[in-house]
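Predict the holo structure. Ligand: magnesium ion.
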Amino acid sequence: MNLLEIKNLHTYFETKRGLIKAVYGVNLAIEKGKTLGVVGESGSGKSQTAMSILKLFEKNQKIYEGEIIFDGEHVENMNNKQMEHIRGNEISMIFQEPMTSLNPVFTVERQLNEAFMLHQDMTKAEATAESLKMLELVKIPNPEVVIKQYPFELSGGMNQRVMIAMALACKPKLLIADEPTTALDVTIQAQILKLMNDLKRDLGTSIMFITHDLGVINQMADDVAVMYCGQVVEIAPVSYIFKEGTTKYSHPYTEGLLKSIPSVTSDKNQRLETIPGSVPHPLDIPPGCRFAARCPYATQKCIDEMPEIKKVSDVQEIRCHYPEKGVRSNGR
Ligand SMILES: Nc1ncnc2c1ncn2[C@@H]1O[C@H](COP(=O)(O)OP(=O)(O)OP(=O)(O)O)[C@@H](O)[C@H]1O
Ligand SMILES: [Mg+2]
């Protein structure tokens, strides 16, 4: 059962220099209780897809086309009041930088309590008791001490945990995590990732996990959406993405991303490949396949015609004229 379905989503920014089509025909789905990893280079539209789900938009930004269906309801048609209900109760978001969500001038207690007092109608004493439980849930040592502290008195990892506690206070059905651990050192990152996996298991929360780090995707995701230049180019179970040979099909961009992560089995001296070339400028998008200029297999058809995203099996979809490995041209 899907908790979230996005169909042909187009979210654009109107600018003096033209329309910036940040999200251009995105399709994806997140099953109840599962984690969808969203991966892709900088500027591929990961964050703007997430912002579209919550309609956290700039003044010059809106949904031009498409559907966002959350728990059976169409989000794209909802008004501000309905969106406020969704944001406070159904979907929470955590960001890379905890200070975008935490208020530096209020104690942890005041900020955490707000979620309970505002949305769940509790007294202050009841809210504090719940807040303490949340801090324990996210494994904060000495919660009675920390709850009286201000964000500046806490480390980055601690603030990240407080932010997760805040995001979970309303028991959301969906947690959107946008690069939640990128700013943290590896040990803390590992702890936070484990924490999120535990919470998913214990609370049944669905997670949309955004990162540019395929290694993290491998640890966290059940399914993966690979984004390039405002589009999903491949969506598949995580095992299909990582295990060569599991499937006959792949997107050349996914292959390129995989070659650029260090593998445990690979020779330590082997140099990592990066994908040659760069992402097209958002105001100068080519008419054909957006990846064609960087793709080792591209033909004239790829330069001329934009491929649609198509099912290659029950669980894998690819946006490529030549999705089958082994039958692609060897390039130009
Ligand atoms: N405020 C804005 N005004 C105009 N265009 C914007 C704005 N914010 C983002 N964009 C454009 O939207 C596109 C997608 O950006 P988005 O932030 O979703 O990328 P991303 O995949 O999250 O990248 P990153 O990994 O760097 O976070 C980019 O082309 C970007 O230029
Ligand atoms: Mg982003």
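Residues 13, 15, 20, 22, 40, 42-48, 58, 212, 282 surround adenosine-5'-triphosphate (ligand 1) (CB under 6 Å). The chain has a mean pLDDT of 90.
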